[in-house]
Amino acid sequence: MAGTNKVGIEVKRNWCKGCGICIEFCPKDVLGWDEEGKVKVVALEDCIDCKLCELRCPEYSIFLLEKEGHNG
Amino acid sequence: MEILDSFRTDKFPHIWCSGCGHGIVMGALVRAMNKLDLDHDKTVIVSGIGCSSRATGYLNFDTLHTTHGRALAFATGIKFSEPELDVIVITGDGDCTAIGGNHLIHAARRNINITTIMFNNSIYGMTSGQYSPLTPQKAKATTAPYGNIEPNFDPCELVQGAGATYVARGTAYHIKKLTRFIKRGIEHNGFSFIDAVSQCPTNFGRKNGFKSAVEMMQWQKENTITIERAAKASEKEVKNKILVGELHHNNRPEYTANYEQVIEKAQKGGDN
Question: Is residue A28 part of a domain?
């Protein structure tokens, strides 16, 4: 089973500067580029909730959110 | 998103360039402080001058943005007057080891209970890329267009030699380790020094063949070795690698505690 589907990903686009750190170091290629060169979620179902994108984001503009009904 | 409670988010997006590692290191500091549940009213964060030192403007604590190189001098005064406060210093490699080099060695010698996090991007980024005492030899800078001829300090060996009692190195890439080392540094009773290897894509990376911040973090991954692995590795594997880990940890009397004893003795009218 690839993903847990327990999480959602919130992106604060107005803080994102498009450095690509979250995209390039995501172990499951969950993230990609949007047409303005900022991050967008492309494969949420593959997310393994490792939080490396959130921990390494220099702008605090990407967060994993637990979906309702799951306690991790 | 609880991390955002520790920031002055009305100041975001912050001033650092796209891909700058300083935001990653500041995030590690906040997560370490959150894990320790530090009282915002009993924590003081002090910075000097430079890109790193802009961090205090974004942190929702009692903060002090001081003069170049003097963060540790101000922090020493704060800790000395109110020893129960947790005092954390944010400084850069130039601020800490050049302009503030003397403050650094004497804070370490005194073993004052201050945690210093050095945001180490190997360059004076704010002023457009002059070499610092931590710019690697042969690396290019605006002041070394043909390559830096000076050997760089190993800041961890420097502070250990001067008497620091907790010394660790992490990187923006090794984010979980870095957060753990900062947490342990704050918990440690004595002078703690964390060398937080960061990246400056704008003023170091562009002059030294890096195309992006991602490439610089990949470099951090490939050119470091943990002390645990280094202990088992061959000399060849360890050569030219930067050590990541808790490099030094011991205990000896702390400065403000020593001073407290002097006060008690004097108040009892003891011998001079």
Answer: yes
Please report, for the domain that includes residue B47, its CATH number: 3.40.50.970
Residues 6+ apart with CB under 8 A from A49: A4, A6, A7, A64
Q: Which domain holds residue B216?
A: 2-267
Q: How many structural domains is chain A composed of?
A: 1
Instruction: Check if B29 contacts A (Cβ < 8 Å).
Output: no
Is the CB of residue A70 less than 8 Å away from at least one CB of chain B?
A: no
Q: Which of B16, B18, B215 to substitute to test the interface with A, most A CBs within 10 Å?
A: B18
* B19:A57 CB<8 A: no
Q: Is residue B170 part of a domain?
A: yes
Q: Structural domain tally of chain B?
A: 1
- Residue B98 CA to residue B134 CA, distance in Å, equals 9
Check A57 against B27: CB less than 8 A apart.
yes
Q: How far apart are CA B21 and CA B216, in angstroms?
A: 10
Task: Give the pTM.
Answer: 0.96
Q: What is the ipTM of this complex?
A: 0.94
pLDDT above 50 for B196: yes
